[in-house]
Every structure is written in structure tokens, then in C-alpha cells.
Design goal:
8 strands, 2 domains, HAD-like_hydrolase_sf, HAD-like_sf
Length: 211
């Protein structure tokens, strides 16, 4: 990949960037969460929340009159790590990450109890030299703290190294820029479905375009 030579390190998001899950799994989880909360989620609402199409999921939930804390408690209780891992697939164009010869880190909102089985199921655990699953303690993208934490783990913080973060959402781009590195936005769902365009230093529909 031509861009590899431009950067001293790479950071990547996970869900929607490197991997995705079958829609049937997403639909089932939202049905179960809806039963818990006494509130049905339409296909469009499930799509918006799962893919973060409107940015902050918590803000979107509040706009719909759903308490974010109650939603996430129900959501994580209903997610089965092994089932999710079985229904997760790796995007073919993500294969370039395995060949990167610079430090590589993972910065994801996917919770650790879900992330670990997914990494094993799709066989990409050894792609990363450092990983961080965001929590309330670490902060959430677009805050720069999670990105800066992984940069520190990689030994590339505050020493002039040039890096990039690739992700599928506006929060990924914001986190990269807030941390002072470049951003690649890979648009997996299309701006028509998203309802807006996400700007980045690079905007692609597939990582193959970067070559």
C-alpha cells in the first residue's frame, strides 16, 4: 500500500472498519433489547445505532426518548460474545493491515468481552501491537485520550512520529484530528444512507483505493 510509506504508525477502528456482523444478528439483538425496554426499534433505528450513522449514539437515544444507560445495560446483557463472533466477517480489503511493517494499534468502542472473541474468530489478533477497548474510564472517540493511550503503548507519542487512524465514522476522524494525527474515513454504508458526508484526510469506500 502506497500510504504505508507515509506513516510511522497506523491505528484502526474495528466494527464497520475491519469487520462487520450479519444483519440478522443485529436485528435479533435489537428485538431483545426492545423487549427489555418496552420499546420497539425499527430497522432504520437499529441501523443508525449499530453503525453510529448520526455520530453520538447516546445523543441519538436521548432524542428518541430512550435512556442511554438503560439501553446500554440491556444491549450488553443481550449480546452473546460467541454468537457475535460466529456471525462476524472480515472485510477483504482490510487484509493490507497484516502486511504493515510499522506499529499498528486498535482503538475500538467494541467492549472487551465482545472484542476478544471477534479477534480470534476472524484471525486478526496478531495484527495489532497494542489494543484498547474504550470505556468510561478511557474516554470515547472523538475524545483524543483513547488514541493517545494507544500511541503511548506503541511508543510513538510526542516524538515526531507521523501516524494515521482509519475508521468508518465521524467519531474516528474527530479522534484522529483531536490527537494530532491524520484520518482515513472508509465509508462502508454510503453517504446516502448515512445522510451526510464525513470528511477526512482521505475518503474512500474501500481500503483498496488507497493503493
Amino acid at each position: 500500500m502506497a500510504l504505508e510509506r507515509e506513516y510511522d504508525f497506523w491505528l484502526l477502528d474495528l466494527d464497520g472498519t475491519l469487520v462487520d456482523v450479519e444483519w440478522s444478528y443485529t436485528r435479533e439483538v435489537f428485538d431483545q433489547v426492545g423487549d427489555r425496554l418496552g420499546r420497539e426499534f425499527t430497522d432504520q433505528e437499529a441501523d443508525i445505532l449499530w453503525n453510529g450513522l448520526t455520530g453520538s449514539r447516546d445523543r441519538q437515544l436521548e432524542e428518541w426518548g430512550v435512556d442511554p444507560t438503560a439501553f446500554w445495560e440491556a444491549f450488553h446483557e443481550e449480546e452473546d460474545p460467541l454468537v457475535r463472533a460466529e456471525q462476524t466477517y472480515l472485510h477483504e480489503d482490510a487484509a493490507f493491515v497484516a502486511d504493515l511493517e510499522v506499529p499498528v494499534g486498535l482503538v475500538t468502542h467494541c467492549q472487551e468481552f465482545l472484542c476478544e472473541p471477534v479477534l480470534d474468530a476472524v484471525g486478526i489478533r496478531d495484527w495489532f501491537d497494542a489494543r484498547l477497548c474504550c470505556t468510561e474510564e478511557t474516554g470515547w472517540k472523538p475524545d483524543p485520550e483513547p488514541v493517545q493511550s494507544v500511541m503511548a503503548d506503541l511508543g510513538v507519542a510526542h516524538n515526531g512520529h507521523r501516524g494515521v487512524l482509519a475508521g468508518d465514522g465521524a467519531n474516528d476522524v474527530g479522534a484522529a484530528w483531536n490527537a494530532g494525527i491524520d484520518a482515513i474515513h472508509v465509508e462502508r454504508v454510503g453517504h446516502e444512507r448515512r445522510g451526510q458526508c464525513v470528511l477526512g484526510d482521505y475518503r474512500v469506500r474501500s481500503f483498496d483505493e488507497l493503493s
